[in-house]
Structure formats: C-alpha cells, structure tokens
Amino acid sequence: MNTEHTMNTADQTRIWNYFQGEGSVNFDFEGAATRLSYLLRKAKRLTGGRAISVLNIGVGNGFLECECAAQGWDVNGVDPSQVAVDGLQRKGISAIVGTIEDLPYPDERFDVVFCSEVFEHLTPDQFAIGLAQIRRVLKSGGMLIGTVPFEEDMSKYRTVCPSCGLVFHRWCHHQSFTIDRMRSVLNGMNFSVLYARQRVFTHLRRGSLRDRAIELARWIAGKFIPRRMSSNLCFVARKSST
C-alpha cells in the first residue's frame, strides 16, 4: 500500500539542485517575476527608499537579488542548493549555502528578509524554527516580506514515485495557509502583521497574444472570484520589540 512520504531537506535539495541547474530550462522561474517585483515595491515603500540590507531565503534564479542590487542595497541570498548559490555568485551577488532553520548570519543583520514560496515547503516544526531564525537576523523593527500559496488543496498535486511507490506532493509542500493561520503564527512568534491578503499574480506582458488574453482573463477572475483562482497569500510583518 502506498504511504504519504514527508520529504526531508536532503530530498528537497536534490530536487532544487536539478530545477536550478540543468533542469532550469524546463522550469518557469520567469513566471515569478511579477510576484517578486510586487514584493520589491512593498520593501521600497516600507523603507522609504533608503539604502537597506536585505536577505532573500530561497534564491530561485536570482531575479529578486539582482533587482534589489539595482536599488543600491546590500543584498544577500541563502539557499540549501549549492547549484543555486553558485549561480547567484556568478551574478556578483553575495550568497551562502544554508537553511532557514540555521541561518548563517549574525543577530540583527538585516532590515528586510524576503521569504517567498518557502514556508509551504517546511513542516510546522521547521516553520517555527525558521521564523525564530528570521526574527533573530532582523534588526529591531525589521520587516519580513513574503508569499505562500493561498489555501492550497494539498491533495491536488499528489504524485507517486514509480520506483518505490511513495506518494508525495509534487513540489514537496507540507502545509497549507489561510490568512487567519498566517496572522496567528506570525503574531505568536512576536511579529506584528502589517499586511496579509490574497492576491492573484498574472503575467500580462509575457508570451503570445493568446497567452496574454488568458492572463487577462485570470486577472479579471482574480478581481471578482479570487477564491476560485490559484493565488498567493502575501504578507508583511514587522519584528516586534518584545
């Protein structure tokens, strides 16, 4: 009988080594640009455009780090994948191999920590440890800015390994988030939640005319029937002083 398998950190690193390396041509990192640009704008507004130090947890293809560097910010990336870190370093961005559960940075190092599409890959215990680490490396009053899939149906992306028969989430997700749950967890870890909202991200400027028409339809649907759309939960939380 098939059993649900919890992907550990080593399992996930193997997967992302592939998709951030030789498999990157088959993985649409560019599709994240709209979402990450939105988070960048949030950071700029919240910090008043001043020079800041930022950390991005989970580097992807380095888009967000390069955009932050273009602002003149002190930019750092951390990822468990050596392949991803090497790619970022080739772009001239400071990056370190590490995990969210043990961030290799000193206390109160950053003004902003970005964490987009990461928390869903963690077990609840890892999530709590990761939030404690983010709080540790943030300066007093520093901001955590990120996204997770909104109210994801975890059964939708279940798949099976043809070799061993284990059933697992296709993208190694371990948990689903509602707005209330995200607020509760962040508040419980001594963050002050400034913003938590569902948002549908589209890519109206990419692809063929047909692709853009589809994205326009998604944007309209996202405005009027967002709960029926695949969407993200966007959040901003400030490190509380207590």
Outline the structure in words:
This protein has about 240 residues and is an alpha/beta fold. The chain has a single domain, classed as Rossmann fold (3-Layer(aba) Sandwich). Helices cover about 35% and strands about 25% of the residues. It starts with 8 loop residues before the first helix and ends with a strand. The model has no long low-confidence stretch (mean pLDDT about 85).
- Structural class of the helix and strand makeup? alpha/beta
Shape-level CATH architecture: 3-Layer(aba) Sandwich
- CATH homologous superfamily placement: Vaccinia Virus protein VP39
What is the tally of beta strands?
9
- What is the string of SSEs from the N terminus onward? HHEHEHEEHEEEHEHE
Number of helices: 7
Major sheet, described briefly? 7 strands, mixed
CATH topology: Rossmann fold
Top CATH class: Alpha Beta
Overall average residue pLDDT: 84
- Low-pLDDT residue intervals, each spanning 5 or more residues: none
Distance between the termini: 49 Å
Shape by Cα distribution: globular
- Widest sheet, order of strands: 3-2-1-4-5-9-8
Number of domains: 1
Beta-strand percentage range = 15-25%
